[in-house]
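Researcher: For the record, we're logging two predictions in this thread. I'll number them. Prediction 1 follows.
Model: Prediction 1, sequence and structure:
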Amino acid sequence: MADEAVCVGPAPTSKSYLNMDAIMEAIKKTRAQAVHPGYGFLSENKEFARRLASEGVTFIGPDTHAIQAMGDKIESKLLAKNAKVNTIPGFDGVVKDADEAVRIAREIGYPVMIKASAGGGGKGMRIAWNDEETREGFRFSSQEAASSFGDDRLLIEKFIDNPRHIEIQVLADKHDNALWLNERECSIQRRNQKVVEEAPSTFLDPETRRAMGEQAVALAKAVKYSSAGTVEFLVDTKKSFYFLEMNTRLQVEHPITECITGLDLVQEMIRVAKGYPLRHKQADIPINGWAVECRVYAEDPYKSFGLPSIGRLSQYQEPLHVPNVRVDSGIQEGSDISIYYDPMISKLITYGSDRAEALQRMEEALDNYVIRGVTHNIALLREVIIHPRFVQGDVSTKFLPDVYPDGFKGHKLTDLEKRELLAIATSLYMAEQLRSQQFLGSPRISLAKLDLNNWELSIQLGDGTYPVTVSNNGSTFSVEVDGMKLNVTSEWNLASPLLSVTIDGTQRTIQGRCGWRSSSAFTHMLHSQNLPASI
């Protein structure tokens, strides 16, 4: 979609997207006037912003002072305190050694969080509940911080047990104007990385929202911030909130804020970088509807909620026909998911007039998202958004380990769902068999012209074997499973990876890995549910 594209180097990031010399050369080659850094790589690198400024190129983001001040957790916490922002009790200086870490932890009171001063993305973070874990955490966090950021400085603060992770989007210009654009609930996390986000939060009342927004703006003004940025808070069960950090860039989850406010954050960043004042006042910022974002990753959710998966996307189909769906991605069918970059395939965003509508559309979108060639986390995402606790808004950063203490095992079928799955699979098998009928050189004929009824099959699902009786009437199959009769209707497009079927009036979407060709279609469908099957 770009007018021009410049290769900045081979796949390893150190030789391409983190190579400032290569990027500066691309800027000169294209005579670019400005650079938007996105939300990764050099987006919060003060040296990159400084080099751009020295060449007269505009950095579409805050100045180097704000990047440096907010990028250092120790300095940012001191600035937040001075700006009257609520902060987590803790030690603001640099922890020298393990003995000092233990002394500080005892003064603060267990549990404590040990984390890298220059960290982010969950790197260099450990929770300690006693002296021994503090010593161990100090050692491991120091090593991880040094290898990840080249900076082994650590800080220690009180660990807020069972918190929510709620962040405030801010937008500020170069004329001392700043706005807060409501909040995003980002509590569904694994390994301190976000998985599902929504805006607004079900938890905040207007007074708490305003207090958090005003403190976020106060911090932005304290560092003379200009551009879009995010102030992250931990919120406890009593709605007390504490400053966590400020991200001086566009966030991955910014689309859900755009959905409920109607503002295009990237456009606003470009306007601010050009020097224009903000076009809106605080009273102009609405909460209009509800938005949900799921991060679709190439990873195995059955292993630690998601270990990265690599490979080629042999089949890829986005659910863009679902109303009010937005898919932000940088891949297409045939793309490779490699070891060099974050394994996120896309951001899937749905919007509705209320939360129930946004979640219903997300469920439909996930059902209609076709990804083949790599393992992905759609099964986990779908289970999260339909889980009773999530639907009720009862979430925290401990949601995944609390709900799945033994790890994610997939969806457990109810008795009715098992019968419906058997009925659909049997109907698919029958449709494929009937479709393949040929009479003495005659062309393949339609199902409606075949008078083949009362087929009896024995189906194995998991450890059980089920007798099934099926009859057909054109595009409808009547299937008796375990004493229950179910009517299954579809257009039976066996070439499509997606199949819309209706079971006794209820619509379902099912997927086949390579369409529904051959008698293995039934097995393919059940394998997509992580169940062994045979006829």
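Researcher: Logged. Prediction 2.
Model: Prediction 2, sequence and structure:
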Amino acid sequence: MSISLFSNESPIIWKDEEKQQELKEALYAVKQKFGQQYPLRIAGEKIFTEDQLISYNPASFNEVIGFVSKAGKKNIDEAMDNARSTFAYWNLLTSQERARYLLKAAALMRRRKMEWIAWQIYEAGKNWEEADGEIMEAIDFLEMYARKAMELDQGETLFAEPGMENVLQYKPLGVGAIISPWNFPLAIVTGMTVAAIVTGNVVLLKPSSLTPVIAAKFVELMEEAGVPQGVIQFVPGNAAEIGDYMVGHKDVNFISFTGSKEAGLQIDEIAHRGLSEQRWMKRVVAEMGGKNGIIVDEFADLHAAVDGVIISAFGYQGQKCSACSRVIVHEKVYDRFIEQLVRKAKRLRVGSGEHNNDIGPVINNKAFDKVRNYIEIGKQEGRLVLGGESDRQQGYYVHPTIFTEVNPQARIMQEEIFGPVLAVCQVKDFYEGINVYNNTAYGLTGSVYSNKREHLAFAREHMECGNLFFNGKCTGAVVGMQPFGGYYMSGSGSKTGVKEYLLNFVLTKTISENY
């Protein structure tokens, strides 16, 4: 099988009027599909249940995107039984054979990019650029993991003495539970799922109950690409109802999770309780969010820093685990930075992603109330210099909000908010800024704006985060270029978008032969 070298998917140039027209047609076509029913998929069968998840458009919450059947514990047991039997033959295929399905899926997704963007806009509340970026990432995961899995198939030749051959092989773990988030309902669903199946595992996929239609569409795509029945069992439902049950199930070998810190810690605890009839220790691969910061040094290009902070803080309404929610600014440039930041942030347009506004809705009413509550906390902890307004007449809109003069120990500097709320504090020197940055429970992304090499070198060694950017935004890590993932309360430290991520889903076996 001849395969070209990996290259990242290119973004759509939205200035092209033909592309704009294509998207408008896709938006219209997708809207005609609102309100459809989506089944569970277990053992290759479509199962419709009376109990359903209802997916709403966060930009216009009277619109129903679709109705998705909910799995119960009985469905999970059926899916587990079928997954075990499917694994018996799926794991015997070569990675090259399994990779073909991923490459075909990438081609299908690429051809229908506008349709996928439309689903993202309606169900996840993204604008054109954010939706396109997510589709690009999903395609990159398919292309990257297909190629890297074939490298794993070759194993590793080890050192040996004369008359002895030593080889290391990789073997799949078995059955996995994929528990995915709503904020990247296609890219993360794709990456988590295909990394597991291309290495020979089979999975039960439980997407977020807030964006289940996109996940259902993903499963349809993988079936169209030819993935055999039973390799992906689609079991959407409420976390409280089936999530813990899946994680604690005796037949689950691993759990791949992306979501909140609280949910991740609960999953880790349940997974490691152990059962008397269980032969293995469950492996947990978790990515849990962050409280990411950007340091603006006295030697920074302030225009570049302002641009980077605005994109990092307010892109997709601050609903990325990598989003910047705190800025740490040197006292010598603090006033100038604040003035430029507020002036530029005032230009951001709030409204539906369908019309490509800068700031769309937060995902649902619960998120809306949580963000508003943090804004009230911020009014007590800092000085409100921009925003604070919200609108829930038709969608869940929160305006970009900036607080200055915030103490580094304040709640809005320490707790993950997941909304367009930014806290800014002042430090006397660069080294104090590093200490302030490190003083959280998280360790996901960070950025430094400085043109002083000595400071960048210090940050390289002392900033505690999985993804560090110099003179650039702290969001938008690219597959193959910036392997993504953090540690501490940000997760288990696994990095997506590289071959090493696939090692989370395999066992290693060494074979020594004397001759």
